[in-house]
Design brief:
The complex is a heterodimer of chains A (220) and B (170). Chain A is built from 13 helices and two strands, in the order H-H-H-H-E-H-H-H-H-E-H-H-H-H-H. Chain A has 220 residues and is an all-alpha fold. Chain A folds into three domains: 6-49, no CATH class; 55-65 and 147-220, no CATH class; 73-144, 434 Repressor (Amino-terminal Domain) (Orthogonal Bundle), CATH 1.10.260. In chain A, helix 5 (77-86) packs parallel to helix 8, helix 6 crosses helix 8 (123-133) and helix 11 packs parallel to helix 13 (200-215). Chain A is extended and about 70 Å long. The termini of chain A are far apart. Helices cover 71% and strands 0% of the residues of chain B. The model of chain B is unreliable at 87-92 (pLDDT under 50). In chain B, helix 6 packs across helix 7. Classes of the chains: A mainly alpha (220), B mainly alpha (170).
C-alpha cells in the first residue's frame, strides 16, 4: 500500500472498517502509514458528529423523565398566565428561570403559550413551569381528546399497582402523581411502539425495576 | 436519593444526543450499538441515584462521561462472559480526567460541525453514505455517477477540511 496515493490508502482503510472506527481499522493494518491518523481521526469525529439519540417516543429514558409529549394533556396557557402574574413574575424572568434549569425557552415561547399557541404537551416542561410559577402542575394542564393507542394501557394505568408506582416516582421526581403517571405511561408506550405485546404484568414489573433502581439507596 | 432540585428532564433533553453519540462510539467496534440505550439509561439512573454534591463544572461532560463509562462497563461484562481479559480497571463513576477527555472530544465535534455544514451536496453524500454509514464505495460512486476513485478523492478532501477545522480551534 506504500505505492498507492494518499486517496487510495485512506479509501482502503475506510473500506476495511466493517463497523470499526477508522483509527481501529488503520491499527489492524500493519502496513498503513500512521501519518494518515489525522485524517482518519477526522473521519471518526465526523462519524460521531452525525449520530443522534433515537426519537423521543422511542427513548426509554426520555419517557421516564416525562419528555415524551402527552397526547391526552396540554399546557393551559391561560392558567399559566394567571399563575405567573400571581407569582409576580414577568414573562422574561420566567423564561430566565427555565433557561437556568436547562430548558431552551424564550420570552416569545411563553407569550405564545399564554396566548394558546403551540402549547407544549411535555409533562416535564409543564412541571418545570409550575414549579417556577409556584403553581400546582395539575392546574396548569388541560385534557385533549383520548388517544386510541393509549387506550390499550387503560387497564394497567387504572390498576392500584400502577398508581402506587406513580406515587413513588412522583416523590422521587418532586412532581405530582398525575404527571408522574403520565411519564410512566409514556415509558410503557415505548415498549408498545417497539412492537412488544403490552402484557400488564411485564409492563408493571419493568416499571417496578426502574423506580426501585432510583430509590434504592434512599434510606441510609 | 434522587435530588428534586436538579431538573434531570431538561438536562437529559439537552445532552441526550451527545450521550448516545459517545455510547455508539464505544460500542461500534463490538457491533453492539443496540446496547447504547442501556448504557445511557444506566448512566442517568446512576446519576439520579447519587447526584453530584456540588454543581458540576459541566453537566454535559458529566452526563457524557458517565454514559461512556457505562458503555465501557457493558463491553467489559460482555468480554467477561466470553472469557476474554478486559484490561481497563473498573471505576464506578466518571472521573475528572475522563470528563476532560470528553470535553476535548465534544469540542472537536463542535469544531467539525461548521466544516460539515459547508460541504456541497456531492461531498455531503460522500460523507453521509460512505464515511458515516460505511456503504460500499462502489455503490456510493454509482449513486453519484462517478468512479470509486473519485469518491476516495472527495473523501480525502472532506477529511482534510474537517481535520483543518478541528486543528484550528485546538
Amino acid at each position: 500500500m506504500n505505492s498507492g496515493s494518499k486517496d487510495e490508502d485512506i479509501a482502503e482503510i475506510l473500506d476495511a472498517r466493517s463497523g470499526q472506527s477508522a483509527l481501529a481499522s488503520r491499527v489492524a493494518r500493519p502496513n498503513a502509514r500512521p501519518e494518515l491518523d489525522g485524517l482518519l481521526g477526522a473521519a471518526d469525529v465526523a462519524w460521531v458528529s452525525q449520530q443522534a439519540a433515537p426519537p423521543l417516543a422511542d427513548d426509554p429514558v426520555a419517557a421516564m423523565l416525562g419528555l415524551v409529549p402527552d397526547p391526552d394533556w396540554e399546557l393551559d396557557g391561560r392558567a399559566l398566565a394567571n399563575s405567573r402574574k400571581r407569582a409576580g413574575l414577568t414573562v422574561s424572568s420566567l423564561a430566565q428561570r427555565l433557561t437556568r434549569r436547562g430548558w431552551e425557552v424564550t420570552n416569545k415561547d411563553i407569550f405564545a403559550w399564554e396566548g394558546g399557541k403551540n402549547v407544549p404537551r411535555i409533562p416535564a416542561l409543564i412541571n418545570a413551569l409550575a414549579e417556577e410559577a409556584g403553581a400546582d402542575p395539575d392546574r396548569l394542564r388541560r385534557p385533549l381528546g383520548a388517544d386510541p393507542e393509549r387506550a390499550k394501557l387503560t387497564a394497567v394505568v387504572e390498576s392500584d399497582a400502577f398508581k402506587a408506582l406513580a406515587e413513588r416516582w412522583a416523590r422521587l421526581q418532586g412532581t405530582t402523581a398525575a404527571l408522574a403517571a403520565s411519564a410512566l405511561e409514556s415509558r410503557m408506550m415505548v415498549a408498545v411502539h417497539r412492537g412488544s405485546v403490552p402484557d400488564a404484568d411485564i409492563l408493571l414489573e419493568s416499571l417496578e425495576v426502574l423506580v426501585t433502581a432510583v430509590e434504592d439507596n434512599e434510606t441510609p | 436519593m434522587a435530588d428534586a432540585s436538579i431538573d434531570w428532564a431538561a438536562l437529559y433533553q439537552k445532552h441526550r444526543d451527545a450521550m448516545y453519540g459517545v455510547a455508539y462510539e464505544v460500542l461500534r467496534g463490538s457491533g453492539r450499538v443496540d446496547l447504547a440505550a442501556d448504557a445511557v439509561q444506566d448512566a442517568v439512573v446512576s446519576l439520579m441515584k447519587a447526584p453530584p454534591e456540588e454543581r458540576p463544572r459541566s453537566w454535559e461532560a458529566l452526563l457524557v462521561a458517565t454514559a461512556k463509562r457505562r458503555a465501557l462497563d457493558i463491553l467489559r461484562s460482555a468480554a467477561m462472559t466470553r472469557g476474554v481479559e478486559f484490561a481497563e480497571e473498573f471505576m464506578p463513576g466518571a472521573t475528572l480526567s475522563e470528563e476532560d477527555e470528553v470535553l476535548e472530544r465534544l469540542d472537536k465535534i463542535a469544531r467539525a460541525r461548521p466544516a460539515i455544514a459547508r460541504l456541497d451536496a456531492q461531498a455531503h453524500t460522500v460523507l453521509a453514505q460512505y464515511i458515516v454509514l460505511d456503504r460500499p464505495r462502489a455503490e456510493v460512486a454509482a449513486d453519484l455517477g462517478v468512479t470509486p476513485g473519485r469518491v476516495s478523492q472527495i473523501s480525502t478532501r472532506i477529511l482534510s477540511e474537517i481535520n483543518a477545522a478541528i486543528e484550528k480551534g485546538g
